[in-house]
Structures are given as C-alpha cells and as structure tokens.
Amino acid sequence: MSQDSAATKPTNGPVAPGELCWLEVPCVDPERAFSFYQAVFGWAKPCNTDGPIPGYGEGIDSIHTFMHGKLYGAFVKMSNADNVAVTVDQELPFKMPITPYLLVADLDKTAAVVAASGGKVHVPKFACGPGGAMGHAARFIDTEGNVVAVWTPPVGKC
C-alpha cells in the first residue's frame, strides 16, 4: 500500500468521545513492527523525536509512538515475547493484545457503566506518563472477552 502524505498528517480538531484515540501494539521488536504497519497501512514514522518513552508498567520496556491521520498510538516494547498476549490473561493484566483506546470524559463513570453492563475492570485507572502528564487510562474486558481501553487527557490538554 502506498503511503499518502495527507493521511499521515494530524487532522484538524480533537477526537470526539467514543472515537478511537490511541492504539497500542505490543511487540518485542518495535522497528520490525513499525516496518510491517508502515508497509500495510502507510503509518508515519514515530512521532516522538526524543526517542522512546520509558515503559509505564510491569513487563513494558518502552513506548514508540506513531501517527496516522487522527490515529495516534505506540508500539509497546514488551520485556519478553511471553508478554505479547493473544488472549486475555486475568492473572497477568499487563500481558497485552492489540489494545484500542477510546476517549471518555470520566474514567470513574465509565468504569461504573462497564461493570453495570457486564464488563470487568482488567487494569484499573493508571497514569500515562510521569504524574499523569499524558492523562489517565484504564483497561476493561468487554462481555465478549476483548480488552478495550479508555483514556482521559490531562486537564486542559484536549
């Protein structure tokens, strides 16, 4: 697939609540993963020019960001291949499959709705970046067993 330069530029305006706002792709080789997604989807080079961001949880070494249109995300370098999940593992909540993040206004209210609707908290609310500089997120398991994450930006940032 050829890369469309217009598709790699951020589009005007923030994403709306309920839209996909972040995608994490767990991997053991971020360069290999990036090459694959660039070839298949035309994704742009990682957008953090200062290099990878330190990992934020157990088993996560570093975060390598990318962008494509309104979609931002990261290739998440896992400490070992066993942490790249193909199914949800209740005993190891940071063992990850590909995880879509949806923008929400309030993580706590969303957690209550998830529970009331038959879902389960998989990873409770956590800070993204030091002190929540990149917002806060949580992961849930939907009624079908899929991991879905939700995110709120830092106050005044979105």
From TrEMBL:
InterPro entries: Anthracycline_SecMetBiosynth, Glyas_Bleomycin-R_OHBP_Dase, Glyas_Fos-R_dOase_dom. It comes from the Eukaryota. Transmembrane segments: none annotated. Pfam families: Glyoxalase. Residues 23-149 form the Glyoxalase/fosfomycin resistance/dioxygenase domain. SUPFAM superfamilies: Glyoxalase/Bleomycin resistance protein/Dihydroxybiphenyl dioxygenase. PANTHER family: GLYOXALASE-RELATED (PTHR33993). This is Glyoxalase/fosfomycin resistance/dioxygenase domain-containing protein. It comes from Schizothecium vesticola.
